[in-house]
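Researcher: Please generate the 3D structure of the following complex. Treat every line as part of one assembly.
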Amino acid sequence: MLSPDILQRALISFQIFLFGMSLYLLFDSNLRYDFLARRLLADLGSIYRGTYVLIYFSNPTSAVCNTVQRPAIEKLRDLLGSSLQVLEVDITKEPELTHRWKVPSVPATYLINPRGELHHVNYGLAQAEELLLQMFIG
Amino acid sequence: MTTQILQKVDHSALKANQITIITLSLLAFILNIPALVVFVAMVMGIGSLLKKPGFVLLYYHFYKPLGILKPDVLDDHPEPHRFAQTLGFVVLAGGSIALFLGAGVLGWGLVWLVIALAFLNAFGEFCVGCAVYYWLARFQIPGFTKRAPAGVFPGMKPKREFLRNA
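Model: Done. Output below.
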């Protein structure tokens, strides 16, 4: 039989685990996206609904943005044509928008589905193939 | 400017290390065995000195053969992960000292800090110690020379390059 002390410590551990998981789930990507979506999709009033929209945050001085991410997005746009609308945000010119979208670093890409819902977020480089999979698989 | 050459880092070996640290530290708390905390701290310290994950032998002789973890080799810097392990060793060592001096709340609190950060690293794919390393590198602190791989948020696990040369 386990001693009461061990049982108490196991219970404490379980409670700490539950608390930690609650915190994690609170900031889980899907929940975070819903939170961001409710607050921020008002920025996308001009978006043509019915297509996927890719919001791409970049910095003109970022080598990764210019030499890797932008070509990847252009490759995706060439592939999908009018099924994908791409909006590029220069963080040096739109600091308030960047702050509102809580962009931690560039490149950052936000994928909006045809229903106008925030579908996926990438903080860091995302290749064309990865973005394509995110669009159709999730 | 420091040359930023990425190396092949098996993130599964790091994960095995973190899972073992979490498991043993949890057991130490539940069974109230401060000596086990000392053991884990020592292994982490030795690993830091040898520039390897402390429980890397378990990865090669237990996790990998049993198929629990498969190799996950990514282009990354090993230095921030070593620094994170060193930080973990320092915190666990501090926790051990606190426990043996009778400061149970402080001691177990530090142990739980290591458990929480190892858990975040293993399952949340975010290394707080690595983020601290990269933050110190930004301020050009001597000894902290590496920058996060291009396109990777400091502390986050690098992504696998997708369909390279497809």
